[in-house]
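Let's practice the habit of predicting before peeking. Look at the sequence and jot down your guess about where helices and strands might fall. Then scroll down.
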Amino acid sequence: MNESESRFPVDLVLELKHASSKIKIGKDLLPYHWKKNPGRQSGLPLSRKWENTQITFNTNKEIFLNHSLDAIFFPPGQEYQFTIPKGRYQFSSLVGLLGEKEFQTNVSGKFKVYSQSQLLLEWDLTGLTKEQWNKKEESIALEGDLRLVWESKESYLYLGEPLLYPEGYRESKKITKKPKSVILIVIDSARKDFIGAYGFRHSVTPVLDKMAKESVFFENPFANGNWTKPSMMSFFHSEYSSNLGLGNSWFSTKPYQRKVYYGKKRDNLAKTFREAGYYSKTIMNNVFFLDYTTVGLDLGFHNSYQVGMDIVDTETLTNHAIEFVSEKKDIPYFLHFNLNTPHASYSPPAEDMKVVRNIIPDSEFFRYESPVQRYLGEMHYTDREIGRLVAKLKELGTYDETMIIVTGDHGELFSPEHDYSYHFIMQTRFGHGETHYDEEINVPYFIKLPKSIAQKTAQNSQIRIPGQSSLLSLAPTILGFLQLRPQNSTYQGVDYSTCILKSNPCPKESFIYTEGRMSESVRTENYKYIRRYPGFTTVRRTSAGEPHTMAEELYDLKKDPKELRNLSLEAEGEILLQQARADFRRENFLKRNRLRIWIPPCEEAICRDYISLNVQGSLYDWEVSETVQINSGSAKTISVTKETKNKTNEPEEIILKTVNPELGAFFQFTRNGKTIPVRFGRYGLEYQRSLSRVDDLIVSERQPEGLLQSTLPWVYNDGAFSGSGETEVQKEMGKEVKKILETWGYIHE
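Done guessing? Here is the structure:
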């Protein structure tokens, strides 16, 4: 943590891997209760992974309140033994119970805490309501160890967010400095240009406008995703969503995507703050931060409070945030506060619409279409709710030393000129996630610094960051201000704190990359280049239909800032289009698996080679020479044609990049009309459609042995992104497996 604050508390979930357990739990003992996921944060081995779960209780079915805690799991008779420094602690936790059977009516048991065999406390939990969290807190004195015991016959205990605070910590903080807590406010669907601080003529957001005047203010910020999932995942991790393994195409997060995400080191804001001793909580309407939903992931919050009811959620979430900042005012915390307004359905309270009508003259108000009018009402409603939270912070005396970041996950599409979309969701142009125009990705972004940090800068008021920037910078910048960025972290974005604190010119984000559904864009100060994936190039001109193909779009932002003239279709734009394509490929924003096709030399006078493939991971892009023609009939099918003359004895390698980290493919090869066997994978098996589990067999972490000498085509997936690393032992075992396969007749040299 920063120099003025000591490291605390002892987080028993993070200490679990150093503890011993009486019962090792490697499988789900309560399969009927589906709202949990094992061992994501504790680093436990597979044999113990279910000892730690993010357990979720549906505590209010009227508003779909799902309350998740990172918890230690106690089946009947379970004990955990920890080594903890000697001293007095405040033991804090929330406890929840489930029955052994789904419809078990009663739950019961005793939770006991020991140190050096001495009983320190006992909680009799008999009679508690199932699937409800109950706050427990008590002072204990430890003699260098801690033993937790659950005595029950048929009830299962979850010890949520178990923390040991050194006794006297809260009192000492009142005497010295207030903790530098952090609140990240994310306003869903917030367009930058409807906020007064960003130039909107009528201040329907007075709270935000005032806060912006005392903040580090990014003048032209952009999201790195045009809908919630890829955008929020990218700025929490400071890495593009697809590079995390999560993709950008649809809501679901599939098992192979989770495997990639959880299988690699991933830093994110919740994890970093938690490991630095901050209490971490998310208060949200956002299922993408809950693993059990099949669409989200467990980012590592101590506590996740998720309301799934639109319209009423904003006030409910704000009320809980006010309770939270009041309860935690004496400890440093990281709060992610995510409001679903002004997201559609654009249903503001009548009182907010009345205020907006009084602020904006009729002559201007009625120029907006009805959904936009209601959007303005929701912007005011959102600002009013944020104002209630700000007022509570000021009342508590914690506002000055609290860092508050305000941003949006994406914008919203309103312009009729930009109605080029699939219309997946809203069946109207009013929405997001379909295009890459500035109105859909240009968001607010400013940081109100703690006063003690702001005083270190050369300016006493607003600090403006000119030029374009992206939310990829959010995590490294706020961690930089607090001196909390881990060494060798995976954060990729720009840390603006360094230049601000040293009053140096800030770095430029020359290329801003944004993901969308099977599409992507690159923005510079001069142009916007938009590209759709193969098989997803047919879009609609209007909501009435008129489908047409639009694989690329290009806009000259200096001459055409409203992005109305697509230069990719005009001769005038050819030079700029070539530059944009070259910039895009050189920057290589996304890491992808590469399906490699090796075509052997041709020894006939004329060779006409033809390969057809069905790619499980869907097509993203390809790298081929000028002698090769590529045709893509859909997102997963591709044909490769190559014609050579005069006995050209040069082999050819074709590289296909895939959207998702799936490894498999099905393929057929003909040369001069004759079907030729295809070898595949690390072992060079001859492909047969009857083979099962091709996705496992096709991967090879390096160029397979014998490929360059093969007279047959060879296809393999290098697994560059999803990962296929082998140890030396595994490599030797692979050679042995190859010999066995040869003796069985699967490999023909």
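How did you do? Residues 1-6 have pLDDT under 50 and may be disordered.
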